[in-house]
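Have a close read of the entry that follows and walk me through the local backbone shapes. See right below:
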Amino acid sequence: MHPARTFRALANLRDKISTNGQKYDICEDGVAVVVDAVKALEALIPAVAERNRLSVVSLISQSLTRLLYASRADEWRALSPQARKLHETALARLTALAPAYPLEFKQVLAAHPDAKRRLEAQLLFQSTRATHQAQAIAIKAAAVEHAKAASSSAQPSIKLTMDFNAFGKA
């Protein structure tokens, strides 16, 4: 598939999934096709000439940033499971692409401020989401520990065989 057609196909797919607040579902096969297309494009990067590497990295980066759907919690909750998977895959591929080709990636972000803003907002949202998930796990663990402590303190752990009530009365 020609790179420009791949970019248009990814843009069309993104527009079909989420347009103006309306939620559209994407099938699992659609997610697999997009992931395979991105992997194929990534495999081209080392194979292209050095002078064309920036173009391929730009194509992949822009395509993947178009697949980042949610930068707020309400947007995230509105996504279908397949759109979430596509979103998370795009973010994972971007975070893998950036350190692999740092110069080209920086040039792409400098040339496309909208993609840079979108990626920065997504990374901030992801870190916030990860922090909230860690806090929720800690709260649940504390609640379970508290419930265990409460149930174990309700019953004595040692059973006395002798009645000591007579010692208190003289």
Observations:
- The first helix runs from residue 3 to 17.
- Confidence is low (pLDDT under 50) at residues 18-24.
- The radius of gyration is 27 Å.
- The first strand starts at residue 18 and ends at 19.
